[in-house]
Amino acid sequence: MPELILGGIPVTLCSGVPAVSYDAPDGYTDAVLSGGRPVRMRHFKKRTITITGTGWIDTGLDSLDWDAYHELWSPAPMRLSTVLPQATLTSDARPDESVIAEALVSGRRVSTPVEMVGRVASMTPVAGASLYEVVWYPRFTVLCTPPPASLADRVVSWQLFCREV
Fold it and tell me: Which domains, ranges and CATH numbers included, belong to the chain?
């Protein structure tokens, strides 16, 4: 499992194994037309990311400027499925971890090479594939709130709340 890195500072496993939650992109309003048909009006598409941990020490992120944007290198992978051997990732990939791809052939997963150009993943087609999947460790530019930490029974619990920029 890769380390959680925020603003260039790694959060070590002494702070606990991070539990990462990616919330669906927001920035939309659903309106109902006169005939009762709903229509989604999207203004922007950004995620919120919540990371929690419990360990022996806190995150060590106190030196960060919490009013600035930071790069978040997530330790939790993302996955994208497609019927075509090409897909556009929904975030940048971490440069220190490889993007991997698999094809589903007769119910079996088969590894297939993948080439990245920006966020576009081009997989080598596999004969008989009904589905392709790309897995990557994401990298986001985020604005965060300072993580509150609490100490109880010699264990430090912390939570980091980030908004994608």
Answer: 1-76+138-165 (2.40.30.200), 78-136 (no CATH)
